[in-house]
Structure formats: C-alpha cells, structure tokens
Amino acid sequence: MKATVRTLFDLALPRECGGCGAVGTLWCSRCEDTVCSAVERVSPRVDPGVPCWALGPYSGPRRSAVLELKERNRHDVAVPLGRALAHAVQKLRLLGEIDPPELSSLVLVPAPTRARAARGRGGDHVERCARAAAAELRHEVVRIPSVLRMRRGVRDSVGLSASERQANVSGRIEMARSYSPGSPGRRYRRRTEIGDIAARVRIPRERTVLLVDDVLTTGATATESVSVLKNSGVRVDGVLVVAAVR
C-alpha cells in the first residue's frame, strides 16, 4: 500500500534529485559521491583569522543543493548536505586539522541568517544542515548553539562587492539575547544578557568550535561572526561551509 501511495505521489509530483535534477530520487548516489568526496582549505578575500574549509567550489550539485534548500524550500536537501558536512569533520580529524572527539567534543555554530529570509524559508537553513550533521555524528554529543543573529538593516548580499558585503554586515551581527539549547522544536527559550551569553552557552576552551555556513563568498559574514564570538569569549577553531565561491 505504501509503495502504491508513493508511486501515485511521484506521478503527481515527480521526485527530483536536489543536486542534479535526476527524476525518481530526492538525492542520487552520484551527487552523494561528489559532495562527500573531499574537503579543501580555502582562502576568502576577507580573512576571518581562522582556517576555512569547504566541501568544494560553488558549482555542480553543491550549488544546486544550496539553491534548492534556500530558494525552493527543499528542506530534505539539508539531510545529505549535513551528512557531507559530518564526513568533512571526520576527514579534518583524520588529517589532524581539528581534534578527535576523544580529546575535544564538537560544537557547530550556525552562521546567522537574516530573520526575514529565515521566515520565508520555513526556518534557518544553516541550522537545519548543522543539525543534520549532528545526527550523522550520532555516536558523539554535538552541540549546536544558535547564538548568532543579524540585526535589522542587513541587505541581501547577492550582487554586492567584497567591500559592500563587509560594510553590509559590519556591526550588524551580534550574540542573540535569547537562544534555544534544546531540540529543533525550540521547546523553551532562555533570556540572558549579551555579556553573559558566552558563559551560558557553556562552550569551554577545550571544545572544538566550528562556524558552519552554506556558501563562503568573500568571507565577510564569517569574519564578523568569528569576531563577535571571540569578543564574547568563544574561541573558534575554523569555518566549515558547503561551498566556496572562487
């Protein structure tokens, strides 16, 4: 019965791969191999002062998947992207770029998204990918404190130059006054002063903290985010993104 219902549903709304558009699957094995195949060091024009890694260039299935997730509300695409990010974490550990879980537990901090954009997408797409990554790393405890937010006045960065992107976010990213350390359902929220939030997030210095984002274009958002975290007492070990614009 389930197979029949799925067949009828596919006839009405054919499933398409979020990476290449192949009909009949939400995510094909070819795109899985491409997105999970590597992690590389990148150097954005605006240097955040910490290592930056990407799954690859902003092209092919990586670009398509990000656009499906952001522009077409394909929430299911967050699962394979999160899986790829988890594989990247494991590779970075094997390469000695970050500490193994035996020495340092992992904290994935989602890069901030404009509130209006998040509402239009049915939630924060970066946080969704981070949670999918944590689910893949299910044999360890991974914290995902969504503590960064963008203030009002930040424009859509599409079409902006590197200097314009930097000016767009300068001083407009801050530690959130309220956050949810619980599940994606956000069962409760805790109020706290910005100056005290680093302690409340409980990110000790011995933990590996990675800022996670979808696309690294100029590095402006990453740089501002790392600076805000650092000024709040949170040491960031690196930036990990799905794709980097070259």
List the helices and strands and how they pair.
Layout: H1 2-12, H2 29-35, E1 40-42, E2 52-54, H3 60-71, H4 78-94, E3 106-110, H5 115-120, H6 125-136, E4 142-143, E5 148-150, H7 162-169, E6 173-175, E7 178-179, E8 190-191, H8 197-201, E9 208-216, H9 220-231, E10 238-244
Parallel strand pairs: 2-10, 3-4, 3-9, 9-10
Antiparallel strand pairs: 1-2, 5-6, 7-8
Helix pairs in contact: 4-6
User: What is the domain total for the residues?
Assistant: 1
Gap between N and C termini: 48 Å
Secondary-structure-based class equals alpha/beta
**Major sheet size, sense and barrel closure:** 6 strands, mixed
CATH architecture: 3-Layer(aba) Sandwich
Content of β-strand: 15-25%
How many strand segments? Answer: 10
SSE order, one letter for each helix or strand: HHEEHHEHHEEHEEEHEHE
Q: Supply Rg.
A: 18 Å
Give the C-level CATH assignment.
Answer: Alpha Beta
Order of neighbouring strands in the sheet with most strands:
1-2-10-9-3-4
- Helical content class: 25-40%
Shape: globular
DSSP summary: helix tally: 9
* Uncertain runs: 5-12, 179-197
Residue-averaged pLDDT, rounded? 84
